[in-house]
Amino acid sequence: MNVIAKRRDFLLAARAKRQGSKGMMVQGRYRNDTAALRVGFTCSKKVGNAVARNRAKRRLREIARLVLPAHGREGWDYVLIGRAEHTAARPFSALQNDLIYALRKIHNQKP
């Protein structure tokens, strides 16, 4: 699992499929190659100050580390976006279920 770091890749994912859940928004894009899946994380200032944004991103990173190897697909880019007041406060198991639900919906959407 690689990390998305370039703005261009974030913008491409923003125009692709998306699915919201209580704890996060997930954007998914198929890249047409067989490379490993990539994941990016972002939280806007709506989530809170720098401490709150970093806490939310840490939780998203850990959930991605646990869920994506089993439920993600090769050749896809995923961007996990934190939600104000929900990402940091939601129980960890509920966030995991949110990500699994969002991935299932993204993979089943028509192009």
Brief rundown of the structure:
By secondary structure, the protein is of the alpha/beta class.
- N- and C-termini, Cα separation: 24 Å
**Rg result:** 13 Å
What structural class do helix, strand and pairing data support? alpha/beta
Parts with pLDDT < 50 across at least 5 consecutive residues: none
Reported by name, the CATH topology is Ribosomal Protein S5, domain 2
Enzyme class: hydrolase
Keywords: Endonuclease, Hydrolase, Nuclease, RNA-binding, tRNA processing
EC number: 3.1.26.5
Protein name: Ribonuclease P protein component
How would you describe this protein?
- The chain has 111 residues and is α/β, with parallel strands linked by helices.
- It contains three helices and five strands.
- The chain has a single domain, classed as Ribosomal Protein S5, domain 2 (2-Layer Sandwich), CATH 3.30.230.10.
- The protein has a five-stranded mixed beta sheet with strand order 1-4-5-3-2, with helices on both faces.
- Strand 2 and strand 3 form a beta hairpin.
- Helix 2 crosses helix 3.
- It holds the Pfam family Ribonuclease_P.
- This is Ribonuclease P protein component.
- Consists of a catalytic RNA component (M1 or rnpB) and a protein subunit.
